[in-house]
User: Fold these one by one.
Assistant:
Number 1:
Amino acid sequence: MLLDEIAAKLQSAGVGTTASTANWFVAKGFLPSSPDKCIALFETGGFPNDAHEAALIDRPTFQVRVRSNDYGYSTGRAKIGAARTALEVGNTTLSGRRYIHIVAQSEPVSLGVDENNRPSVVLNFTALRSRT
């Protein structure tokens, strides 16, 4: 599954962790209220599949949302930069699935701060993934 593959990549690159109480916990499909420093992954649909050399190519899209500690915009901005570096790959295998590439759709975007003054920054990605 897409979010499992992306989470595993972030964790193996040292960008996030699996421990739900640790800083930079990687959550899939939700943004937990704690810890303050968190990375949340969301599926955002995608584009129609492409036929390519007799194999079907999926074109999923996803969002990485980084929330930092109170007033920690620079910390969050640096973390989403690290996530981008880890995720923008070409011709690689993630959790047994071949990815032709993963690319960011734009520069990171600030979502402002939440009720606890924790800033969030998001970045949307497009992937090309083979089913074979």
Note: The chain has a mean pLDDT of 93.
Number 2:
Amino acid sequence: RGRSWLWSQLDERPVRLVTCDMDRWPISQLNRFAAWIRRERFDVMHTHMSSAHMYGIIMRRLTGVPVVATAHSRHVQPWWRLNDKVIANSEATRRFHRKVNRVRSDQIVTIHPFIDTQKFCEPEPHMYRAIRRQWRFPADTRVIVVAGDVLPHKGHTYLFQALPELIQQFPDLQVVLVGRFRRGEPCTNRLRQYLIDQRLYKRVKWIGRRNNMHEMLAAADLVVIPSTVEAFGMVALESMAVGTPVVASETGGLTELITHEENGLLVLPRDPRSLARSIARLFNDADLQDRLRIGGRETIQSKFTPSVWTAEIERVLASITDVHVDSRVA
């Protein structure tokens, strides 16, 4: 849309920007939108998120323009097979869509997302201290950050179950939850009641969503990702980029990002004791912390930069558009 955030990012670049005043829905817009696509002579459509994926399939049917869809998550949606190409954000996501949505092996490719290395970088000391002051923690408090919406599969409960053992070793320990939560939701209610019952409520700060995630992660001593299911694990990469060590569940896309004891620590999912032991080990071993920070930065620079991602995306789009353009010309 004209004058949107994306428009402002591309306004001075050699990219042709075409505005659209139409909504994807209702159905009465479909033919008008299809005519617009044909008139502008686009060679390929690239869709993101569920409603856009469905719309892309419809437009492909109406216009003949091929569509590439990026799978950011895993849902049972049989129409994935109707795309010309599917880009999975991890091997775990690729395997899901192969098995559940029956996407052909030659139709789907894995391309890991990238990190904005200008935004997610090691912080200045004053920023670290400023965030700690916002949290009202002393500068030397041990802080664990868990970043992500409060949902059952994010595994907050297993970290909470690990807290009593950790607090015995680290009496000043605090946990900060960064992510959406809604009062009254069953998951939120269960977690809060557990903290009250175990007299741990003052150990956990619920701060909701924040636009300065890079600062939140950088202000932590370590980031914990106790998920039971994780399609990719962007928080792990963001933490590596800002230099904060990561302890994460050995599940889904996290196992593709984290090499145990090289750029993070992996633990068994749903295992509070294993989680507590790994967190305590990391707190007690400064050399290990340094090794993980170095390994994390090397991982980002070698595999997850915008230039690496761009080259992979271009190869996929070219493989589709070359065939389509050649057949259209013929």
Note: The CA atoms of residues 22 and 28 lie 11 Å apart.
